[in-house]
Amino acid sequence: MNLPAGIRSRMVPGINGLDMHVLEAGDPAHPAVVLLHGFPELAYSWRKVMPALAAFGYHVIAPDQRGYGQTTGWSGEYDTDLRPFRLLNLARDVVSLVDAMGHKTVAGLFGHDFGSSVAAVCALVRPDVFRRVALMSAPFAGPPAIGHGPATPNPALGELARLDPPRKHYQWYYSGPDANPDMWHPPQGLHAFLRAYYHVKSADWAGNMPGPLRSGAATELARLPDYYVMPLAQGMAKTAAAHMPTADQIAACEWLPDAELAVYAAEYGRTGFGGGLHWYRCRTEGVNADLELFAGRTIDVPAVFIAGASDWGTYQSYGALQRMKSEACSRMTGWHLVPGAGHWVQQEQPEQVVDLLYRFLMTGE
Predict the structure, then answer these.
(1) What count of Cα atoms within 13 Å lies in the side-chain half-sphere of residue 243?
(2) Could you check whether the bond before residue 165 is cis, i.e. omega within 30 degrees of 0?
(3) Distance between CA atoms of 62 and 47, rounded to whole angstroms?
(4) How far apart are CA 123 and CA 120, in angstroms?
(5) Burial track 19-44 (b if 16+ CB lie within 10 A, e otherwise)
(6) What does DSSP say about strands 332-338 and 303-308: parallel, antiparallel, or unpaired?
(7) Angle between helices 87-100 and 114-125 (to 10 degrees)
(8) What domains, with CATH codes, occur in the chain?
(9) CB count in 10 Å sphere of residue 81
(10) How far is 311 from 165, CA to CA, in rounded Å?
(11) Closest CA to 283 of 325, 237, 317, 332
């Protein structure tokens, strides 16, 4: 793995049953900043912002989370026990890692995509440790209400299959047994699959023109791009293949050149996607129901939301953005939609993201 200057790679053993792979930058004696990646990403996804944050005087820590990359101690098999992948245990991973790396508090906890959910739960349950939280590309609508219990399918899911053309929701596809083999061994090859997948969710794809949904009905969900609401008969490999960029577009992609994409392809080629897909299964199968313990509780540390202006992830869950702003976070100091970025905001526009995160660390805004 070819890392930018100033970033170090090491294994930290004994983290809640894991040997955790960590990228870090800066002086370990400095205040900690922790960066949590999403799907299908790695600690490597933070490579463009880590040196700058370290230069501001922070010890920057980015782990391969449970189910990902070089971190070991987890199973990607479909029939494994899902409980280690529930959000409260993922938060325990982070608390354990922070302690093992010699910190009692974290000046800033920044989570992207599904890492945003983990960061939100960390700030919800341990505000004494995590002093500020940035939620990126995935709004947090708050913990489930008491009595929410095991997950039940959204009625709109059945309605999606009755649309013309029929569709299905990607999170339920990700929760099924076919998703991992489909994406791990796609007909076009893993490198090409990831190229198309990262491309279509970025600002490079002209079709990304997001906006709020009017409801959670199937007809509204069908407004989402097909990488969220997929053709019923297709897997994600075929869905992504339809959006493969041209050779000229690939050559012009400065935020993810082929040499950097190869890092993701090598890691996922080795591990598959099963570990990360377990996180989706915990959501759709109700394994995160123990979060009901915190029903009605808010995130009370300063919080900020950052996403790409071309990112449908901001709006994919009806009402989540508004609930985050008005209910889930009592000290929501701002939300920022970054021009020129889609879903991979810290990779597409790292300078703008660094500026926003540094301002947040300094002022809480």
Answers:
(1) 23
(2) yes
(3) 9
(4) 5
(5) ebbbbbbbeeeebbbbbbbbbbbbbb
(6) parallel
(7) 70
(8) 7-148+291-363 (3.40.50.1820), 155-276 (no CATH)
(9) 10
(10) 24
(11) 317
Instruction: Give the helix/strand (H/E) hosting 306.
Output: strand 303-308
pLDDT tens per residue across span 148-199: 666 656 767 789 999 999 999 999 999 999 999 999 999 999 999 999 999 9
How many Å separate Cα 170 from the centre of its chain?
15
Q: Mind giving me the DSSP string for 21-79?
A: EEEEES-TTSPEEEEE--TT--GGGGTTTHHHHHHTT-EEEEE--TTSTT-BS----TT
Is there a contact between 231 and 165 (Cβ–Cβ < 8 Å)? Answer: yes
Residue 317 has phi, psi (to 5 degrees) of: -105, 115
Judge whether 188 and 247 are in contact, CB under 8 Å: no
Q: Residues 111, 117: contact at Cβ < 8 Å?
A: yes
Q: Is-contact 277 98, C-beta < 8 A?
A: no
Helix H or strand E encompassing 332: strand 332-338
Tally Cβ neighbours within 10 Å of residue 83: 12
d(CA 247, CA 255): 15
Query: Strand (E) positions, 224-292?
Result: 229-231
The strand ranges marked E within 167-319 are 167-169, 229-231, 303-308
What's the pLDDT tens digit per position in 64-118?
Answer: 999 999 999 999 999 999 999 999 999 999 999 999 999 999 999 999 999 999 9
Structure tokens at 278: 């377990």
pLDDT digits (tens, 9 = 90+) for 60-75: 999 999 999 999 999 9
